[in-house]
Amino acid sequence: MISILGKWHQDDRKSYRKGCPQFFIQDDRLFEKWDDRHVAFLKHEFLRLKNAVVLWTMHPWERDARLMKEALVKGPQAYGVIIEVASTRSSEQLLGARRAYHSLFDHSIEEDVAYHINDSRRKLLVGLVSSYRYEGPKVNEEIAKSEAKTLFAAIKNADKKNPIEDEEVVRILTTRSKPHLKVIFKHYKEINGKNIDEDLDDELSLDETMQCLCTPQTYFSKVLGAAFQNGADEHAKEALTRVIVTRADDDMKEIKEEYQKKYGVSLSKKIEDAVNGNYKDFLLTLIARGE
Amino acid sequence: MISILGKWHQDDRKSYRKGCPQFFIQDDRLFEKWDDRHVAFLKHEFLRLKNAVVLWTMHPWERDARLMKEALVKGPQAYGVIIEVASTRSSEQLLGARRAYHSLFDHSIEEDVAYHINDSRRKLLVGLVSSYRYEGPKVNEEIAKSEAKTLFAAIKNADKKNPIEDEEVVRILTTRSKPHLKVIFKHYKEINGKNIDEDLDDELSLDETMQCLCTPQTYFSKVLGAAFQNGADEHAKEALTRVIVTRADDDMKEIKEEYQKKYGVSLSKKIEDAVNGNYKDFLLTLIARGE
């Protein structure tokens, strides 16, 4: 980092300072003087770059373990990260994160999730982080069909009981293989005429879980879209770094295609426009990997 | 096996036939003629030896996966085997069994347990087979103390709700590390004046889970004791083979000490008296390993 910063030309620094400021926290107390304001900008930009580089240099298992721990510490509004990590990783990747969690935090991830989460999402989240899903192609169509009906009944009955607390809904989402779930959702659409996620707009955690499990690239491109839209929101800013760093060596190609399809602009163009400096260069380098 | 059987002397066979018959199934339909009866004995004896040898030659992960699958197929009276395997193995051993289960049965173990078990034990069993417990020594005494109170309240409140379905009881037993659980049970005794398992005599599955987690050698020596006592019972006979084969390379030494202490006779003496033939020799060889 020092060598990168050291190479900056005076003009670079000026253009950097004039760059798009709406992506950063604008705390007026920090901006009383012109100079202080630029120092604050720089500090924030450096912090984002530093965070991205630190996250990138970690082993993926350690990274996932730390992301989940951080979400637990931050509390309810960050639990989506736990759903994301537990549901979009392969069985072996999630297991690696659980191993790393042991050695980093002297607890198991399911132990901490079960102990710290006290809202309606507890059962779902404990199941998601504990799962070691079968990843073969074998799917029993009959069972999938009957489970589509089970989900439909639970979701349509939501007035009486929140489907996220329904034992059968949790069982299906936390134990079935991803190919099996896809077949369930196909049957669900046949029963209902629309996709299951359209039925779950009010149930954000369930909706997110289903997207992460079955259409992770759609999910990730939505997270990126939201991160650019809510550029000033701390959580959205972290999401940008998190998604790009964690997916760079995985399914970034598909995410870029999905992003282009959804927003009509390429992800790299959007990054060019929305962020600055070395942080921008770093993100662009990451999303170009493997091309 | 053929070479072993081929070496038998006439007298061996005679003494074998006169051996302790109460250990075998006595189905009178099989015993209409004297000769048929001996053939049936032999068939059963061979079957036991064969089962023991087959179980012994498997990789421990495959063995555990198959034992759990068999228990699921047999139904509710066999679910104790799932508790035993999930709770007495180390985190890595259980994980190995989960891996083997994937490739053998095209499902995850937690998927099958959650789908097939419909009684009050479902939540407990799903949690036990999904757990990847922390195995380090760190224990938070304060939390353990407070969780001892939680368990006490749930067990004392059993008139209103079966503790095996209590979410907190299940959470504690399925996610806490074994050292942490031992500290909980120590505090439980301080609160209550007696051990937690004495409070759970009517809750066999909970009692078994706690024993398997914290005093596995006591649990195994009890299973052996019951196997000798109910020699004619098919389940008890399988338990004898299962415990000796699965523990031979693990904690057999401690189990033998525990058995001697509990029943006042050595395990090898008991095997000498209660079983016969090559099956007996095989069990004696297994329990002598590592001496």
TrEMBL record, chains A, B:
Which residues does UniProt assign to the signal peptide?
none
Name the keywords, alphabetized: Annexin, Calcium, Calcium/phospholipid-binding, Metal-binding, Repeat
Instruction: Spell out the molecular function terms from Gene Ontology.
Output: calcium ion binding; calcium-dependent phospholipid binding; phosphatidylserine binding
- What are the record's GO terms for cellular component? cytoplasm; plasma membrane
> Which GO annotations describe the biological process of this protein?
response to cold; response to heat; response to salt stress; response to water deprivation
Which Pfam family would be a valid example here? Annexin
Question: What parts of the sequence cross the membrane?
Answer: none
InterPro entries xrefs: Annexin (IPR001464), Annexin_repeat (IPR018502), Annexin_sf (IPR037104)
PANTHER family per UniProt: ANNEXIN, ANNEXIN D4
Q: Could you identify this protein by its name?
A: Annexin
Q: What is the organism field in this record? A: Vitis rotundifolia (Muscadine grape)
